[in-house]
């Protein structure tokens, strides 16, 4: 297949709320040197710290991905094309990386594709593909943590697909914190590539049967077999973006589920540029869901050069704006753009991408502090020289950008701060109304929504259900007690659902 031929030639150089973005302008070197510290930063209202390394060069830097824990601290995964590494922020820096794959698993993870990570509070899921990819006995695996990344369980097999083979795992979480994994599925000779999605209903301890989430453009359509992707979710909506191959037309499509990823009856072309190309471009889309709106971002060469575009779509209406170019004010010395990523938090949105401009490989960024006020077209260069795959994360006035640095051979990061002037009253109120307090012999649950019953579940750090119950608050200020006198000392996870709003808490038995 196309991808295997390119691999043999050395062609490739290269998720608790995540969402995608939009526009892109590029600064020339002159603008970067003369005005970056003043004009662009002031207009974007971002105050940046210097770039730093996540870990030593011995850990290498392939395909970094960033997510956040319950407190908004960054969590980063990447690979050296053999092992999957993970590190977390401790308040002053990133901790020594730990390996998440089993010792007998080598993983697929070059610079242009690899493992993925998603979070739901302090629950973390990391997925990877075992190599050789074409071996039907090598699988997609998922490792989970329920304490913010301090400890991880042994990897659990995700793909139960018989004689088929799998590739490109990506992960998100449902409303209860269960992992939902997308991956590309082939016949055992790498033919008939298609995207499928599989759910877990026990927090990653086991996975069900995969369902098709691609091939909507025609009866002859298939997935573009060398283009990785991402999967995103919000509430019961799960979206599987991917590059479609309909003949030689390779637009970006999305499969849409409204039942938590159990089925994907509908799909739509969110690109509509009709890019005709005979070989796989090895570049996939990213997306975010904001209410009923889906923002999808992707690279296309329909204009004759690799450029990043975005589209805005209605999920319920299954209608889209089609591709909106992000290079309207780009200087003529821009050669190419690729590998876009995006994040969204409250009303702020950020998008980063790789570009080759002015003879340099650069990390470019566009940031919008308040999406309600429209898109900010100001773009800036976050780093330059031998950059490759990038990612971004937003949380409460902080922005983190990470990338492959090909000079140092490390994952690098840059942290910035912006004015988080927009609040989210509904989320704040929700957090304030439901509280868990440590009592002398029990955990005490209190809620301002006194008429709403709750369902609670108590798990150990290995995701084993220890106890569960249903109760109601008879009057304002009443507390529900969950006794822990039968438990040994240690950390536990308490999941509470009230009025369809699930919340996870880390609790301790003294």
Structural description of this entry:
With 510 residues, the chain is mainly β. β37 and β38 (501-509) form a beta hairpin. It is globular, with a radius of gyration of 22 Å. Strands 1, 2, 29, 30 and 31 form a five-stranded antiparallel sheet that branches. Strands 15, 16, 17, 18 and 19 form a five-stranded antiparallel sheet that branches.
Count of β-strands: 38
CATH architecture label of the largest domain: 6 Propeller
The protein's oligomeric status is single chain
| Number of separate helices | 3
What distance lies between the first and last C-alpha atoms, to the nearest angstrom?
57 Å
How many domain regions?
2
**Sheet with most strands:** 5 strands, antiparallel
Based on secondary structure, the structural category is mainly beta
Rg (CA only): 22 Å
Name the helicity range: under 10%
Report mean pLDDT, rounded to a whole number: 85
């Amino acid at each position: 297949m196309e991808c295997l031929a390119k691999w043999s030639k050395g062609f490739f150089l290269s998720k608790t709320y995540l969402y995608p973005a939009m526009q892109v302008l590029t600064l020339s070197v002159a603008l970067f040197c003369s005005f970056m510290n003043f004009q662009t930063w002031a207009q974007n209202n971002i105050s940046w710290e210097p770039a730093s390394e996540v870990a030593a060069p011995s850990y290498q830097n392939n395909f970094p991905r960033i997510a956040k824990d319950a407190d908004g601290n960054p969590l980063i995964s990447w690979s050296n094309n053999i092992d999957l590494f993970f590190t977390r922020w401790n308040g002053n820096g990133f901790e020594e990386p730990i390996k998440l794959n089993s010792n007998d698993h080598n993983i697929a993870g070059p610079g242009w594709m690899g493992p993925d990570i998603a979070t739901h509070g302090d629950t973390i899921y990391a997925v990877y593909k075992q190599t050789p990819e074409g071996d039907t006995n090598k699988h997609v695996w998922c490792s989970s943590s329920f304490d913010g990344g301090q400890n991880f369980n042994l990897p659990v097999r995700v793909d139960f697909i018989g004689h088929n083979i799998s590739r490109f795992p990506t992960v998100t979480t449902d409303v209860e914190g269960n992992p939902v994994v997308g991956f590309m599925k082939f016949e055992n000779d790498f033919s008939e590539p298609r995207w499928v999605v599989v759910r877990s209903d026990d927090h990653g301890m086991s996975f069900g049967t995969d369902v098709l989430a691609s091939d909507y453009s025609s009866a002859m359509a298939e997935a573009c077999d060398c283009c990785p992707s991402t999967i995103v979710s919000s509430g019961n909506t799960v979206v599987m973006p991917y590059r479609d191959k309909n003949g030689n037309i390779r637009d970006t499509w999305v499969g849409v589920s409204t039942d938590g990823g159990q089925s994907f009856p509908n799909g739509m072309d969110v690109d509509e540029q009709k890019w005709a190309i005979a070989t796989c471009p090895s570049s996939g889309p990213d997306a975010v869901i904001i209410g009923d709106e889906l923002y999808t971002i992707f690279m296309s060469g329909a204009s004759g050069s690799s450029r990043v575009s975005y589209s805005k779509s209605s999920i319920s209406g299954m209608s889209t704006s089609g591709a909106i170019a992000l290079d309207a004010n780009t200087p003529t010395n821009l050669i190419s753009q690729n590998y876009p990523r995006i994040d969204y938090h409250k009303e702020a949105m950020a998008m980063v991408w790789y570009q080759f401009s002015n003879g340099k490989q650069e990390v470019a960024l566009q940031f919008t502090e308040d999406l309600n006020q429209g898109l900010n077209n100001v773009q800036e260069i976050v780093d330059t020289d031998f950059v490759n795959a990038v990612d971004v994360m937003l949380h409460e006035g902080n922005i983190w950008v990470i990338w492959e640095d090909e000079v140092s051979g490390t994952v690098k990061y840059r942290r910035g701060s912006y004015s988080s002037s927009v609040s989210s009253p509904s989320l704040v109120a929700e957090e304030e109304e439901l509280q868990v307090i440590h009592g002398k012999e029990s955990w005490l649950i209190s809620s301002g929504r006194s008429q709403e019953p709750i369902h609670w579940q108590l798990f150990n750090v290995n995701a084993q259900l220890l106890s569960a119950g249903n109760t109601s608050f008879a009057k304002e200020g009443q507390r529900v007690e969950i006794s822990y006198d039968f438990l040994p000392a240690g950390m536990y996870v308490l999941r509470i659902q009230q009025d369809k709003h699930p919340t996870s808490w880390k609790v301790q038995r003294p």
